[in-house]
Amino acid sequence: MVTTFKIAVLGAQGVGKSAIVRQFMYNEFSETSVPTKTRRVFLPAVVMNGHVHELQIMDFPPISSFPVNTLQEWADSCCRGLRSAHAYILVYDICCFDSFEYIKTLRQQILETR
C-alpha cells in the first residue's frame, strides 16, 4: 500500500514558494517571478529507504489566515486541502521582516487550530 503525504507550501507574496517547489520538482530556477493566484498541486513520487512515497505538494498563494475549521477551508477555494496537510513548509524572505511576521502569525494559527 502506498500512502500519499500532503505538503502545503505557505508564505507571503514574493518570498519564493513556487521557486522552491520548481527547484524540487524540476531542478530548475527562474530569475523571473510570476505571482501565484491559485493553489497549484504537484504529484511526485519519491524513493526513500527503499520505499516509494507519493507526495501531494500544494503551492498556495498568500492567504489572509489559516482556516479555523473545515467549513472555512472549503468556503475559500484557494485554501482547500490546507487543514488536512501532513506537513507545512513555511517560507519567508530573510531580507523582509514583514514576511517573517506573516509566517510567524500563520504558524501560530496552525498550532491553535490543528
TrEMBL record:
One Pfam family, short name: Ras
Keyword entries, A-Z: Nucleotide-binding
Keyword Protease among record annotations: no
Source species of the chain: Pyxicephalus adspersus
Highest rank taxon of the organism: Eukaryota
Name of the protein described by the UniProt record: Ras-like protein family member 10B
GO molecular function list: GTP binding; GTPase activity
InterPro entries: P-loop_NTPase, Ras-like_GTPase_Reg, Small_GTPase
